Amino acid sequence: MVDVARVPAGPRVREWARKHGFSEWLAARLVRLAEDPAPFLEGLLRRPPAYLRVNPLRATAEDARRRLEARGFELAATDLDRQVLRVLRAPISAGATFEHLMGMTTPQDLASAAAPIALRARAGETVADLAAAPGVKTLHVAGDMENHGAVVAVEPDPARVRALRFNLERGGARNVVVRQETAQSTPGEGWADRVLLDAPCTGEGTLPKDKARRRGRPDEIKALCAVQSALVDAADRVLRPGGRLVYATCTFAPEENEAQVQRLLDRGYAMEDLPFHACGGRPLARGVTDWPGLRLDAEMAKARRFLPGVHPTLGFFVAGLRKGGP
Amino acid sequence: MRRATDAEAAAVRAALDGLERGLADILLEHAGLGCVEREGTRWATLVSPDVMDLAAGLLAGAEAGGLPLGTLDDEGFHIDLQGAVEAARAGAVHRQAVRVNEKASRLFVYHRDVLGGSILEYDPRLQPGDFCLVLNPRREAIGIGEVVGRFKGTGRAVRPVHDLGAYLREQDP
Fold first, then answer.
1. CA A72 to chain centre
2. Closest Cα of chain B to A187: distance in Å?
3. A132: which chain B residues are within 8 Å (Cβ-Cβ)?
4. How far apart are CA A109 and CA A106, in angstroms?
5. Is the pLDDT of residue B172 over 90?
6. Which residue is closest to A149 within chain B, CA to CA?
7. Where are the domains positioned within chain B?
8. Whether A177 and B54 lie within 8 Å, measured CB to CB
9. B97-169 has which fold?
10. Which CATH class is domain A50-107?
11. Do domains A50-107 and A110-322 have the same CATH topology?
12. Which of B59, B165, B167 sits opposite A177 (nearest CB)?
């Protein structure tokens, strides 16, 4: 069981927390996560730019951009993913366009694209997506695989399975099987070449758009850590030796991120270099290697963190690992 | 989920080719046909051949698999929304179809009727009571409708049966 670190808050942090309605324990933890906390803390108070991702199974980025610009959208390319466009001006919500209904585009934060990019799934492989709903990343993976190979998408919640199914249908995915079950119940072992585990989390990374999270509590982290550990065990079971596992969350808490990855390193996994190192022209933050109460390998620095205010995104954590074996 | 039986595959092929000759070959050139049963409905799905090579335990009990083209019953295959989308993407929809103007397209995805005067093009064989594919001005399928009136004037011509807007409405009613 992971203990949730409580770190002391200095007077300036306490004042900032009071001013902006954050719990002091959360603010004290957050300031430890950025080399320069000022822009990070500022970034937690305002929404980042909006983005949409073009689904290559339905349209090219150029086609989608042309169509949306004809409707009055202003869009710009991004440096992380050529399929993700920054929305500079939107006459209507990007989720209400005809292109969205046609499965050509999906609103998505830029940082979220990092997990499928890190997975680097290829046509012909078998991929497990163990926390798949609502399916935006699943569709990204299916697109990277050009609708060949197989993706097994797992989601336990019936309402979320429905959303997952709709998003995959709209997007034209032919290579995805949807299973309504917990990842712990997914049958078999060693059948996946790659596993994407975008784990349920406390969602601290969405602080810029969700004020309710400013009052987050340590027991929430503890509860989610238990869920994440079970998912990590399931991911380890279905991944073949030598396969790649990508662990991601949209939270900052090292207990939910690096501590979960460390469990895999302790089983013989190795960290992999990720195929991206910057976003919005700024280097991504490295994985945490020093956190109260956690023993973390130096290799953990190969993980990457997206920090609002530093990067033009919500918060996100991503790590790529290779399972030991042939 | 399982592979479609020969009889199911024949029913799907016949229906697609009835819509447009050669359509089945186009859609099935790089994909197989799967079958998923959910809530009492049997769906024919366009599926990557690799999916059917998954272990039986991963296919059994799947909630969905592949792209659902339509439903199967004792009478045969009935094309559904994504079947219409795929057929239109293949550039092979001229029969059993109406093409409507931009304004009607926008209204149709809000489950609104198409008026006769909004129709740019139609299959003259369509009669009231027939089901038809509804296309936007760019020949993209936006849904399936039922012919309920004449293809001119201000009266109702096509009633929506299933439209692309359902994906949003049913998730966020």
1. 30
2. 6
3. none
4. 10
5. no
6. B50
7. 2-89, 97-169
8. yes
9. 2.30.130
10. alpha beta
11. no
12. B59
The label of the residue with tokens 């960290």 reads A271
Which residues of A carry out catalysis? 250
Q: How many Cβ atoms sit within 10 Å of the Cβ of residue B134? A: 27
CA distance B120 to chain A (A): 19
Q: Report the candidate in B21, B47, B35, B26 with the shortest Cα–Cα distance to residue B71.
A: B35
Tell me the pLDDT band of A1, cut-offs 50, 70 and 90. low
pLDDT tens-digit series, residues A44-70: 999 999 999 999 999 999 999 999 999
pTM to 2 decimals? 0.95
Interface of A with B in 171-190 (CB under 8 A): 172-180, 186-188
How big is the CA angle at A160 (ends A101 and A105), to the nearest 5 degrees? Answer: 25
pLDDT at site A137: 98
ipTM > 0.90 for the complex:
yes
**Architecture of the structural domain at A110-322:** 3-Layer(aba) Sandwich (3.40)
Question: Which pLDDT tens digit goes with each residue over A158-168?
Answer: 999 999 999 99
Nearest to B66 among A95, A162, A174 (CB): A174
State yes or no: pLDDT of A131 exceeds 50.
yes
Domain ranges across chain A: 50-107, 110-322
Contact residues for A224 (Cβ-Cβ < 8 A; gap 6+): A200, A201, A202, A251, A256
